[in-house]
Structures are given as structure tokens and as C-alpha cells.
Specification:
Elements: E1 13-17, E2 21-25, E3 39-43, H1 45-55, E4 60-67, H2 70-81, E5 89-92, E6 98-102, E7 111-115, H3 130-133, E8 137-143, H4 145-148, H5 151-167, E9 171-174, H6 179-182, H7 189-197, E10 202-204, H8 207-214, H9 222-236, E11 242-252, E12 255-264, E13 268-270, E14 274-277, H10 285-298, H11 303-317, H12 329-333
Parallel strand pairs: 1-4, 1-8, 2-6, 4-5, 8-9, 9-10, 10-11
Antiparallel strand pairs: 2-3, 6-7, 11-12, 12-13, 12-14
Length: about 350
């Protein structure tokens, strides 16, 4: 087994905090107007990372709030089935956040419609015991989706990060910029995200995200531009130690070329591109990348191993339907860019 896979992860846990959603998607790449039924799955950016890390052998807790009733039951059950600890999942009266995915094909891209305004998660700003959930934690993982939900989400983001700082727990922040969510309310995303990023140890985001945060473009091309952006981010955010990103070239809905990169203050590694064809489901692939990178970071791996495992995990997610990546370390380290025959 590869050197990146250390002994079973038993010391401390990762806490993922964010909204869990139900996803309804059109089957068979159909348009919504063509469908009489939709496929349902449980997801959400932070929940996807939680499921990935749990599948890779880490102790992971999910902190969120779900509504009473069968929809909340479905979400909590899916987290538990993925190996995620749900003891910090609270319940309340209210509605479940939803989103609808219209699967693309060929040159027609996929599209998402959100239906999550007023969900029980974002209206629960005073009901999370972050100090308790962070006790003994190795990492807090959050994304920019939470503050994009509105003033309540911004408050939740700051509360979680402040509690992590008090507990001495490092923070991973995935930018996960969602224009449709930010555009739904009057706000300044750059200021909000910059304030949150000031507290992060690990950033999941590329040169475009850094350009948004710093309000400046970056010259050059390819790896030079990405290093320039990373160095600017390290200068702007003193706590930041790791930046992980992917580069995706889209040929069509079923064929992408993907490379991965990890930067630290001292060094960087960028992988070669992998052709990903016959894509089953793109949604959640960025979260899979985050899980693969964090898996190696938690194991003390170097930048090359983090980038390679992150890329392998995101490529494997393209082969799985639904939001979550439920792939264990054996399959991760057996990954080959050329594929392979049936393992018997």
C-alpha cells in the first residue's frame, strides 16, 4: 500500500460544518420538462467532504441542523451510512434545503436550481455548540457556501471559526464561490470571504478565487500564474499554509481534462492532466478533491502526494452518481489514469 496511507486514523477528529441538502436530479440527462420523476440523493459541500474523509478511514463529525420529519431522517441516515458521526447533528422544526440538478450532455452543460431560502440550518444561528464539537478536533472544514446563504450564514461562519481559533484547531476553508447564492442578497462577497480567509490554515481555491479576494489579476500563464497568485495569498493571509486547487479544461459534458496543484510557502507541485471521459456525475468532484488533499495533509504527506491523491479522488468521483464519494483507501491507491480490468 502507498506510503501516503499511514496507520488507521484514531487520534482526534475532523469537524465539518455546513448545510446538508437533498438533491433532486433528472435521470438519463433529461430536461426537467421531460421528467415525471427525479432521483434523490443527500449532499452538500461540507457533507461531501465528511463522507469522503470517513470513507478514507478518518474520524469525522458533521455539525449541522436538520428538520424533523422524513427528509431530515433521510439526510442523517445517509451521513451515518457513510461513516460520519452525527452526534452534533441537531433537529428542529423547519424546512430542508433542496437543490435541483438538470444533467447536461454533449455541449449542453448541467444546471442547478437552489431552493434553500429560509432553511432550518441558516435560521439556527444561536443553536450550535461549537466548543463541544471542536473538543479534541484536528481540523475544522468549512466552505464559502455557508456565508453565501445570507447574514445568518456569515454569522455562523465567523462563530465557527472563532471557536476553532479559541480551541487551537486549524481551519480549512474551501472558497466554493456560488454566484447564484451571493447574487440573491445585497452583500459584498469579497469583503466577507476575505475576513473569513484571514483565519484559515488551508485554502481550497485557485488563482481566480485569490484574484477575487485580493481584487487584482495575475499575469503569466499556467503554473507561473498559479504560483504568483499563491505567493500573493500567502503574503495577504499570515495564517495560511497550504493552497490546493485544480485546473479543469472542459471538452464537453462527458469529457474533461483535470490537473491538480498544491502550494505551500516553501514549495509547490502540479500534476499532469488526466483525461476524464464517460463522466457519470461531476457534482461533488471539488469536494472529493478537498477530501483527498486533506486525507494526505492529516497523514503528514508532502505536497506531491497531496496533489496526486486529491486528483485521484476527484477523478474517481466522476465515476459515481450522487454528491458523495464513497471510495476507500485501497481503491484510492490502486487508482490508475489508464483505468484497468475488473479486479477479481
Amino acid at each position: 500500500m502507498a506510503a501516503g496511507w499511514r496507520a488507521e486514523m484514531t487520534t482526534g477528529h475532523v469537524l465539518c460544518f455546513g448545510e446538508v441538502l437533498l438533491r433532486f436530479s433528472t435521470p438519463g440527462h433529461r430536461l426537467t420538462v421531460q421528467c415525471d420523476a427525479l432521483d434523490m440523493a443527500v449532499g452538500g459541500a461540507e457533507a461531501n467532504v465528511a463522507a469522503g474523509l470517513a470513507s478514507l478511514g478518518h474520524r469525522v463529525s458533521m455539525m449541522t441542523r436538520l428538520p424533523h420529519g422524513p427528509l431530515g431522517d433521510k439526510a442523517r441516515s445517509a451521513l451515518g451510512a457513510a461513516g460520519v458521526d452525527t452526534s452534533h447533528v441537531s433537529r428542529a422544526a423547519g424546512r430542508m434545503g433542496l437543490y435541483f440538478l438538470e444533467s447536461g450532455a454533449g455541449l449542453r452543460p448541467s444546471s442547478i436550481t437552489y431552493d434553500r431560502a429560509g432553511s432550518v440550518f441558516v435560521s439556527s444561528t444561536d443553536h450550535f455548540d461549537f466548543a463541544s464539537a471542536l473538543e479534541g478536533a484536528r481540523l475544522l472544514h468549512m466552505t464559502g457556501v455557508t456565508p453565501a446563504l445570507g447574514p445568518g450564514g456569515v454569522a455562523l461562519g465567523h462563530s465557527a471559526m472563532a471557536a476553532a481559533e479559541t480551541a487551537g484547531v486549524p481551519i480549512c476553508f474551501d472558497m466554493n464561490y456560488r454566484a447564484m447564492l451571493w447574487d440573491a442578497w445585497e452583500c459584498d462577497p469579497r469583503t466577507i470571504l476575505t475576513e473569513l480567509m484571514q483565519r484559515a490554515t488551508i485554502m481550497i481555491g485557485n488563482h481566480r478565487d485569490i484574484s477575487l479576494l485580493l481584487g487584482k489579476p495575475f499575469s503569466g500563464d499556467g503554473s507561473e500564474r498559479r504560483r504568483e497568485a499563491s505567493e500573493a495569498a500567502f503574503a495577504a493571509f499570515p495564517k495560511l499554509q497550504v493552497i490546493a486547487s485544480t485546473a479543469r479544461h472542459i471538452v464537453n459534458a462527458g469529457h474533461h481534462r483535470i490537473a491538480a496543484r498544491v502550494d505551500t510557502r516553501e514549495r509547490a507541485h502540479q500534476t499532469s492532466e488526466i483525461d476524464v471521459m464517460g463522466i457519470v456525475d461531476r457534482v461533488g468532484t471539488g469536494d472529493a478533491y478537498a477530501a483527498g488533499v486533506l486525507h494526505e495533509w492529516l497523514s503528514g504527506a508532502d505536497v506531491a502526494t497531496m496533489a496526486q491523491s486529491g486528483l485521484a479522488y476527484t477523478v474517481l468521483k466522476h465515476t459515481q452518481p450522487g454528491d458523495m464519494t464513497l471510495v476507500g483507501p485501497g481503491e484510492l491507491y490502486a487508482f490508475s489514469a489508464s483505468g484497468g480490468d475488473i479486479r477479481r
